């Protein structure tokens, strides 16, 4: 059995042609950061879920990349509950006919 591997320079979600690729990439980045913080604190999933105000089963799914039922807003709230400052910055328009971009930047 062989597996074909295709390299991508961008989002794996976009490479797969998913219609919500930008949203999925943002959620993946937020979930990764939440997981890193929890791991660095050596918290159990139940302890983390209690702090985040979500069921442990939902946290477990999110940390495994199954975050379709979790909003970006809830993930931002989780980061705030973990003591992180969250800022949303809307930049100036590039031009009147172009589409803007969405990116997550961790300071």
Quick structural gist:
This protein is mainly α and 107 residues long. Helix content is 48%, strand content 0%.
Largest sheet: none
Q: Could you list the spans in which at least 5 consecutive residues all have pLDDT below 50? A: none
- Number of E-state strands: 0
Shape: globular
The ordered H/E elements are HHHHH
Describe this structure in words.
- There is one protein chain.
- By secondary structure, this protein is mainly α.
- 48% of the residues lie in helices and 0% in strands.
- The protein has 5 helices and no strands.
- Helix 2 (21-41) runs parallel beside helix 5 (72-81) and helix 3 (45-52) crosses helix 4 (56-63).
- The longest helix is centred in the first third of the chain and has 21 residues, at 21-41.
- The termini are far apart.
- The mean pLDDT is 86.
Q: What are the key terms here?
A:
mainly alpha, 107 residues
Secondary structure blueprint with pairings:
Elements: H1 12-15, H2 21-41, H3 45-52, H4 56-63, H5 72-81
Helix pairs in contact: 2-5, 3-4
């Amino acid at each position: 059995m062989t597996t074909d591997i295709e390299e991508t320079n961008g989002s794996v979600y976009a490479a797969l042609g998913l219609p919500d690729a930008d949203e999925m990439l943002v959620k993946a980045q937020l979930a990764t950061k939440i997981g890193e913080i929890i791991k660095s604190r050596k918290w159990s999933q139940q302890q983390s879920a209690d702090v985040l105000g979500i069921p442990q089963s939902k946290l477990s799914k999110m940390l495994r990349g199954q975050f379709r039922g979790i909003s970006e807003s809830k993930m931002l709230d989780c980061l705030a509950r973990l003591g992180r400052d969250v800022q949303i910055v809307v930049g100036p328009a590039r031009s009147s006919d172009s589409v803007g971009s969405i990116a997550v930047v961790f300071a």
